Amino acid sequence: MMKHLIKNQQRIFVNTLRSQELKNYFAYLVIFAVLGALLFLFSQTIWNIAGSVTEPVLAGIFSYSLLMIIGMVILIGMPQVFKQLYSATDLEFLFTMPIKTKHIFLMKYLQSFIGTPLFAFFFFLIPFAAYGVASNANILYYFVLILVLFAASTIGLSIAYLLNLIVIQFVPASRANEFMTAMSFLSGLLVYLLFMLPQISSGRSFTESLMAGLPILPDWVPVSWGSNALIDATNGSLSFFLPLILFLLLTIVSILLTTTLVEKGFRTGWIRLSEGSGKKKKRKPKKERAQGVSHPVIAIGKKEWFSIKRDMREWMAFLPLAFLIVFPVIGFFMGGDVRLSDLHGFNDISWPIAQGFFLFIYALFNGQIAAAAISREGLSAWILRTLPLAGRDIALGKLWISWLLPFIILTILECIVGVFLGWTWWQFIFGIVVKAGITIGISSIGIWIGTIGAKFNPSNPQQRLTFGTSMFLLLLAYVYLAVLSIPYALMLVSGEAAPLVVEMGNDSSGFFGFVFNVFGVLLTWKASHPIVVISLGLLLMFILSFGIAWLFLSVSAKRINRGVTIDIVSETSGKSVFKRKSGGSLY
């Protein structure tokens, strides 16, 4: 039976590839080109240092790489595993057939392995094989390398399946959306703890332990078995058998442990999620109160807020903040080498660096969140189309709420960081006001991008833009940020740095030399008249920001009045089944 199931999946995969649009093939080509370039650079670096790497350092690299494979498969594979187990469209048909549940589960397991685990396998296989060639490793090394990398990918996939099968037994069917949000956060936290394990276990930073040749992980940690097997196989020693067998046994145990929950966690979980909750909440009757008529801009913003608030999956857009800000800060202070008191008081250094970092985060999030506001209408777009709303009101209503949410979250984080670092009150106020003005332009660009590349996927709220427009938005946001960083840097950089900047301009030529020369002249003026130059820089920055915001909002309003195109993705096929054409007004 497994043979027939695998053959059927093979036909589905081939037909899916044949039915793809040309632009999807182009997107795949771009992704493979980028990954190929990264692999080439990574492999070239390993090739160059292969002769100078000692065995203790190599053991640390192998151990941490295996840990990265397991973490990558868990983090990226969790949503994919959930989809294969409980949201796949062929399950309803397969469960009606005289097929054992375990066979269906194993088929889904193999299908999931072709995704992230297989990618992680090849991503680490190529550079490590390059190391073997450069260091003249024994022929045994290549066979052991394939087995160890395959085992690490399988362990990560088994953990992802096991977490899904366990947690689904405790989550009500009516909380499926919250379940996916919790699982994504749980997997991210688990991966973070895996990466922090070497630092916690040794009490010193990872790079310090690695360069000193100290063991990254204790010998009892399973990935150390794989690392030891690779080291012994490199030298041609037959001692690799014991650690390799232990690592393969762990892989088999992880698979068997996962299959023990198949009947209750797989079939029963799918039935519960498919049927939904049979019980309805009894709501207490609310007292009626007089409702005033809000301004259209306020009403549209409130509608967006209610849509975001009631679907927990919408908040997954903010999850990367934990990995970009919260977790690195915790890990930074857990290293033991840095104390908070060491950073307190250096405002002239910590404050400008923090401003640049937070602007980078704003450029990453604001545009994406604003662009998602357009595609969020999806199948309910016809409701707004019946209301007497102008495109200008809709664009402004979506702008202020999509700008306000990340601004509140990041401002709270900035205030917490500022309190710990001892910033002055004027640094708090100045930084918040300036970033508020700059980020309005980024959000307005996102609104415009949303009108030209909107996409609505009911099962995945994170897919709100087509691939091309998403990349274009990211590029445009950072170009905008680079332009406004000139007057912003003029306000942050001290006038005492004018001689250094002028010297850099004299040493440079072309466009960069011109920029340095102009910036040096402005800093010279700032040294003589600081208040005047800072005021002019602030005025110029706000003129550029609000001018760009007005421009893109005007264009967005015109497109909304004419009608925008939203690609509606089918929950059954995963492809766009129809589009909201731009022949008439969307709203």
Describe this structure in words.
This protein is an all-alpha fold. The chain folds into 2 domains: 2-6 and 23-275, no CATH class; 298-581, no CATH class. It is built from 23 helices and 3 strands. The chain has helices spanning 2-18, 22-49, 55-87, 91-94, 101-113, 116-134, 139-167, 176-202, 206-211, 222-234, 241-259, 262-275, 296-310, 320-334, 340-343, 347-375, 381-385, 391-421, 425-452, 467-492, 498-507, 510-528, 530-562, and strands spanning 454-456, 566-569, 576-579. The chain has a 3-stranded mixed β-sheet with strand order 1-2-3. β2 (566-569) and β3 (576-579) form a beta hairpin. The radius of gyration is 28 Å and the shape is globular. The relative contact order is 0.07. Mean pLDDT is 76; it is low at 572-587.
Task: Please state the average pLDDT score.
Answer: 76
Tally of helical runs: 23
Which radius of gyration do the C-alpha atoms yield? 28 Å
- Briefly note the structural class of the backbone: mainly alpha
Approximately how much helix is present in the residues?
A: over 70%
Q: How many β-strand runs?
A: 3
The low-pLDDT segments are 572-587
Estimated share of beta-strand residues: under 5%
Keywords: Membrane, Transmembrane, Transmembrane helix
Protein name: ABC-2 type transport system permease protein
Transmembrane segments: 25-50, 56-77, 109-133, 139-167, 179-200, 240-262, 315-333, 353-374, 395-422, 428-453, 465-488, 508-525, 532-553
InterPro entries: ABC_tran_2
